[in-house]
TrEMBL record, chains A, B, C, D:
The protein's name in its UniProt record: Acetamidase/formamidase
Top-level taxon: Bacteria
Pfam families in the record: FmdA_AmdA (PF03069)
PANTHER family, per the entry: FORMAMIDASE C869.04-RELATED (PTHR31891)
Organism whose genome encodes this protein: Spelaeicoccus albus
Length: 311, 311, 311, 311
């Protein structure tokens, strides 16, 4: 698929299990090979995008495509278990599947406990866990590992209304996306959100020569830098340094003054603490920048042109 | 000082520099010895508190006591520099002091850049960086290291309106507090907030035999668990496991069901990523617990009895 | 290049700078692009090797090909500086180049300080920093990142006389090697060893269906497991768990008994603490296994058939 | 107990379980409270030692005092299990006790597997896991946490023939020691060595004004720096930076030249990867320093005066 900068694209994505987990008896570890998890839609070629450019992807709409979503504990995956990276000799936690009822009209997901009758109705907050471009240096990577090219960052900030900025590493950028979650807590504690197929609408554009070192996000209230690394403090440091540098650039302040300003105003939710790289967010309220113009008002522009697709 | 459970106490605290940094020429590293940073007010003995009890400390009011606050880069301290723990051969960042104007009537702090004329008026959001009790096992610790006994957790969540729950380790609990910040970003990036002397009002109470393993907080919207450890993912894990266990206890669900529920609803701001232990917060919205009663409604009780002191 | 199991192969490798740093004025950061560092010789196809097999590579001889070797501090690379992963706001350490005189006849390298007249003659201890096979799951990776497929592990244990065991992920295994060091301390502290082109002789063979999860090594005195991960304790844990499992398998003991035996006899040098993944070694003396037979005596066999090439 | 610099002292120490674990049915977690583990002998006051001085402790002899030693898995303690710091939701590994037969005449320890008839005779290599002085800044710490004052570093390098250098923080230094191991692998993988009561002979002396920042060791072949911190790379960095600075001081080279020299010659065994702080060793062969004199030949002096006590 090939599109032009400025185009609006409707994308359907499968859930992270490729749609193969449908009941609480379909254990993911028996149903899907680990390196086949997280199938993505794409790649989408953005014509004219060249290495060194910035790719802007605005999410106008993300809507669950099914009336259920799946969450699960996957053996040796998640923040509160030994993992493939933090290995121990202990057996894995039990593998268990939770089925959530999704009601798009009511905009709710319903949790049902598996070992008691506890139920909870939660608001939907749909997002894409995985959005990325082709890596630099001719590398080919499993999307499960988030890095400078985006990938499986698994942040709930990637909801409708946000614009994602990615570096272009290869001609055409080669955008792909997937791993929709009907909602997810910060940190993706158990390793999965409310995994769900999605129907999404995105608007894409290009800023020549403006590639960021790491993925950035913007919504109406915040500028956000990301860092994806292990250990978690290195992900934190990467996201914060990028935000400090971005602030210095937008305000004309020197680095230490920007460091000071960010220190007193930043918000720092985790994105994921379960993937092969952990992802941290650094969020600066736009009021702290006197509402400075960012990438020539790209976020506002893409929001406006895709307004009629907003869900 | 000795008080009874149920008492309301007015406490004045010095800033983290003992009040000795007053101008941008007073470099903290030359003005205060490292192990004399963070003086605290106390200890306050709570009569009848015994090891194994829970000490509840409700913050009714925290108000800056001066018309200025200080922030600074301190050599080899902070999240974006090599430190005493993460040592490198590089020279430290420049030591620099920022003076903020505090206007309690307008409820604002004004940032002024040191190398340009950039200024920003920010809302006040006063908090205590350091609140703790005497450690267990006859240890004596510098308060700069946060741990199970509380201490220098440096979370902006410790603002007026919150109730802090601490384990009692010694008879009388021996509560101390200090390190007021007129505001602070999450993570305390540069190592300091808007350091300021404070006038605070707290209400204290005791729940027999209910000592939590790690400090917990509660406000009208969230239950919060904390973890203070290095590396950052271990602080994250501690806070999240405590929240999972707390959720299981309050809902009667089994551990994996609670793990699932927390995974989809939790918020995870950093408290500090600069102290000898890093601190992470795990925040669960009370709606996710059907507004379950916590410690017999202690938070609501202390909020009510101290209502007239609210600022 | 295509060889058969049992073949002996002579390989010439360039140094990690592609031979382009020749004097102390050739700063690596100006001479070589980061993603062109560490060129490797290969890939060598081993006919008949299939996914799931074990590839054994015995190093009969590794001899410096030049009369000098290069070491350098590279900006933001090395264990005692902020890096591309552990980012700070501090400027990098000075970039500096050291030229060592290599005397193959005397089997020495001579260090000369750059800012004083301190000199030291050291014994040569040649090794390959980078030896690996094609990754699994169709990934393509820069060799600078060590992982399950081998790659830039940078361990001084990879000297002549050792047999390296690698998992085969693709038909033919596709072996490549390079990054010779005339010697290197454990941990590769400053980010480089005595970087040198090498003439090496290897003997390769295949054990059907015996792919290890992580690279393993064997010499006459030790069995060695490796782990490449961040943070360093995770690299440690991976290497130790592999050694525990290997010990259990070779002795018939249960896992906890093997854990106990390894705990009291293992040696644990770092390989590198500077690359995008850190590498730790877990070394078990063969006497602790009553000299159990490993992979059918593969190490002894390859050592014998290549004996005449030993340097 | 109070001694003079230059004195030789005979010390008996209990094992880390206070002698209360005697059979494989005495589970440590049921027999000893966690904060009563690791009892130490002392404190020994060294008359005339003042803050800022260096305390030298030469170990002339360390001999097992019993004909058995104990090792065990302790719940949530050890490198290959979730722990009190790296928490997970998984149940602990089985708690199991191993009894080793100690034969001082043959200088052997005999391992017997608990679930098979595998046996292994190992050479003794007695060491003290815990040697430390009173902390600075009026802190009081459980000895189980190693830090700048020494404490529970758990390195097999602390065997007879080594001299340990510690900073003096309080008048008299207040030396204590214990936690003898009849032998231990590097890293103390399962959390315990061959725990054994010991009869030891030490020689103590003081160098005025020469306090090192972190504990250092010296034997006939190596100078050693230590670092105790989490995560493991920070322990590594601390030990390496101290060794670089020490090398610069002893050779007169600048820091980067010393960094280079250490990089190519250092050895880096883990001490422990299980305690509340992890400990790494940085070992420089004395030949790399042209056998420079260290602390006025203190190691050679103490070795000579205590020669008749050598075991």
């Amino acid at each position: 698929m090939s599109v032009d900068p400025g185009d609006i694209v409707e994308v359907s994505t499968e859930d992270c299990f490729g749609g193969m987990v449908k009941t609480s008896r379909d254990l993911p570890s028996e149903t899907v090979a680990f390196d086949r998890l997280n199938p993505v839609s794409g790649p989408i070629e953005i014509r004219g995008a060249e290495p060194g450019d910035l790719l802007a992807v605005h999410f106008a709409s993300i809507v669950p495509a099914r009336d259920y979503a799946i969450s699960a504990t996957f053996p040796h995956f998640g923040a509160l278990t030994g993992s493939h990276e933090t290995v121990t000799l202990q057996p894995p936690l039990d593998e268990r599947v939770w089925i959530y009822d999704i009601d798009v009209d009511a905009w709710t997901a319903t949790f049902s406990a598996t070992r008691s009758d506890h139920r909870l109705v939660m608001p939907l907050d749909p997002m894409h866990g995985t959005v990325g471009v082709a890596p630099a240096s001719d590398e080919v990577r499993l999307v499960v590992t988030p890095s400078t090219y985006g990938g499986n960052m698994d942040t709930p900030e990637l909801r409708a209304g946000v614009t994602l900025y990615l570096p272009v590493n290869v001609p055409g950028a080669m955008l792909s996306l997937g791993d929709g979650h009907a909602r997810q807590g910060e940190g993706e504690l158990c390793g999965t959100g409310l995994e769900c197929a999605m129907n999404s609408v995105i608007a894409v554009d290009v800023v020549k020569g403006a590639a960021p070192a790491w993925p950035r996000l913007q919504n109406d209230e915040y500028l956000m830098s990301t860092g994806s690394m292990r250990p978690l403090e290195d992900a934190f440091r990467i996201s914060q340094r990028d935000l400090v540098n971005w602030t210095a650039e937008l305000t004309g302040m020197d680095t230490l003054d920007a460091y000071q300003l960010v220190s007193q105003t930043v918000r720092t939710p985790a994105a994921n603490v379960c993937d092969p790289n952990f992802t941290m967010m650094a969020k600066l309220p736009t009021w702290a920048l006197h509402d400075a113009s960012v990438y020539g008002g790209m976020h506002q522009h893409l929001k406006a042109v895709s307004a009629k697709y907003r869900n």
